[in-house]
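Hello,

I think I submitted the NAP job twice by accident. Can you confirm which output corresponds to this input? Input:
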Amino acid sequence: MRVGVGVLGGGTVGGTLARKLLAERENIAAKSGVELELVKVAVRDLDRERPFPAEYVTDDLQSVVDDPDVQLVVELMGGIEPAGDLILRALAAGKPVVTANKALIAERGPEIFEAATAAGVSILFEAAVGGGIPLIRPLSESLAGERLNRLLGIVNGTTNYILSAMDADGAPYADVLAEAQRLGYAEADPTADVGGGDAAAKATILAGLAFGVWVGADAVHTEGIDGIDTLDIEFARDLGYCVKLLAVAESVNGGVSVRVHPTLVPLDHPLANVRGAHNAVFVEGPDIGDLLFMGPGAGGGPTATAVLGDVIDAARDLLAGTRVAPRIKLGEGSVVPFGEISSKWYIRLEVADAPGVLAQIAGVFGEHGVSIMSVWQDGRGDDATLLLVTHDAPEAAHQAAVRALDGLDTVKQVAAAIRVISPEP
Ligand code: NAP
Ligand code: HSE
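Support: Only one job matched these inputs. Its output is below.
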């Protein structure tokens, strides 16, 4: 049975999807019983060369959604608008939608899920987190019966590439970022990648899937990697850690915490071995134990493959007269304020190398209820580098201690303060 497919966007992912739809038509039909027929691909620039025949190209986005031959719409243009309104238009017309647009899902997810439910059609977004890694379907189906404790995700390939290269080569941040842009990992404007915004959108989706709680990307506590110094990556390695940008979604004190920040990860943790532009999500549950989903988190081939899986799923259901319920089912859960989260911290201080300085610094931690786990010092006569790792203590206590240290005459600089991964909650 035939299903006509209209694609909004024919770039990195959309172009590869269109090519695959044409090249794999018979194979897909043999495997799934669904004959997918590419109808149109909407783009901005009609003259650009594409990896699929020009006869499919149009610059009229709306005509793709409205075409009676198009029964299923794939949104791969990115951005919030007009992508959001086109998706709502397709759903209202009873057409299932597949998208890889994490920014849009993070911003307008609940509204889009409601529209799909009201229209009785599927909305699928497997490629929105982790690119080619099957993640959203396993979380929403295979793990539906598990009360998950925590998800730790390396969900941005650009930042993982940068941190891995700084670790491997000792290269400064700015040089590695330029290389990431040259290789096509980072966007021309890499703000959302290095600032953590892309990971925050993905963290919102992961938290919705795992805990049924919706924390808009704007409400996710987000720190990027732009302040990370190669020196701290080297010191962390000496202490037995590597630095990763983690998206964390965890069940804490009856609520859910969702955050994105650079984190020290022990070198023997599975996430420490996820290098380069790869993505991974480490899932912890009381009965399932630990699971690691890992693979290519970006790129035309991996992402289009995940999108195509959704297209086949949605087409099968369309033909059967059923639908896939939105993968995220929102419940009543509450969000735990960031200040209430406990963790260990790695802190690097540049201090005066003088009698009593160490005691003064230890006193500040004690006054704020933060216990020190380990200390390492390199005294050079007039100044010294001091590395401390603390025991678990509330975020608010750590922040107050760091502010107080910053105010001491003997502390020349609080050069780094990075959270350390905590044991399973
Ligand atoms: P891209 O290469 O920039 O492609 C975007 C496509 O949409 C282009 O074909 C562009 O036309 C078209 N387009 C954009 N705005 C348009 C408008 N107003 N009117 C008509 N056409 C328009 O983006 P991409 O990398 O394929 O990403 C697509 C989506 O997948 C995004 O939501 C992204 O976040 C998501 N995603 C991407 C990756 C990845 O590795 N690239 C991984 C996971 C998820 P022109 O070609 O004419 O410019
Ligand atoms: N810019 C994103 C990344 C693309 O670097 O992971 C995939 O979402």
